[in-house]
Design a protein that fits this description.
The complex is a heterodimer of chains A (about 110) and B (about 110). By secondary structure, chain A is mostly beta strands. Chain A is about 0% helix and about 50% strand. Chain A is globular and about 40 Å long. Chain B has about 110 residues and is an all-beta fold. In chain B, strands 2, 4, 5, 9, 10 and 11 form a six-stranded mixed β-sheet that branches. Classes of the chains: A mainly beta (about 110), B mainly beta (about 110).
């Protein structure tokens, strides 16, 4: 399988707990993105990596969110002290980085904060 | 005003007809425009992108861009029930990597 892989598919947690999601991009893609999507809305940009460098982070993202991409391969997104408003689908996408951006999305991680 | 606006629908189209989906954007500096399709419970998948005024065709899909009027549209010819999905418009605004998304238009193709 050469697509974008995300784990876990679903995560249920209690408010105040920390959660971590993993994304494995398409192997030859050097760009990686995290988006968040709630029902009836389009994806909302969270952050972007080129190789291991985090080049942009949304101004809307609080300091409870952190993302890493060590060695420029897989990436993790951590949310600390989760809140009910964090409940959403967290999507990872990768791109070959040539020409206009063409994103390839993973299946997402559905987070429910109780 | 939202940066990228789409009619939420649902838009109902008979099978075999042409489905027309529209998207307007607010920033005249926008450079690239994308249409993604999202089936219920699935992730978005890219259909087409366009960055020059005019039409761009790919099979049954045609993207149309009018920068003066700040709108981009997607036409689906010979609509099939399998085209039933939410169609998301995305615009490259600030840079080559941050996309601004509309909320999507739900399309229903009736057999």
């Amino acid at each position: 399988d050469t697509g974008v892989s995300q784990n876990p598919r679903h995560k249920i947690t209690k408010r105040g707990q920390n959660v971590t999601f993993r994304c494995d991009p398409i192997s030859e893609h050097n760009r990686l993105y995290w988006y968040r999507q709630t029902l009836g809305q389009g994806p909302e940009f969270l952050t972007y990596f080129q190789n291991e460098a985090q080049l942009e982070k949304s101004r809307l993202l609080s300091d409870r969110f952190s993302a890493e991409r060590p060695k420029g391969s897989f990436s993790t997104l951590e949310i600390q002290r989760t809140e009910q408003g964090d409940s959403a689908m967290y999507l990872c996408a990768s791109s070959p980085g040539q020409g206009p951006e063409k994103l390839f999305f993973g299946s997402g991680t559905q987070l429910s904060v109780l | 005003q939202k940066e990228v606006e789409q009619n939420s629908g649902p838009l109902s189209v008979p099978e075999g007809a042409i489905a027309s989906l529209n998207c307007t954007y607010s920033d005249r500096g926008s450079q690239s425009f994308f249409w993604y399709r999202q089936y219920s419970g699935k992730s978005p998948e890219l259909i087409m992108f366009i960055y020059s005024n005019g039409d761009k065709e790919d099979g049954r899909f045609t993207a149309q861009l009018n920068k003066a009027s700040q709108y981009v549209s997607l036409l689906i010819r010979d609509s099939q029930p399998s085209d039933s999905a939410t169609y998301l418009c995305a615009v490259n605004k600030y840079s080559n990597y941050q996309l601004i998304w509309g909320a999507g238009t739900k399309l229903i193709i009736k057999p």
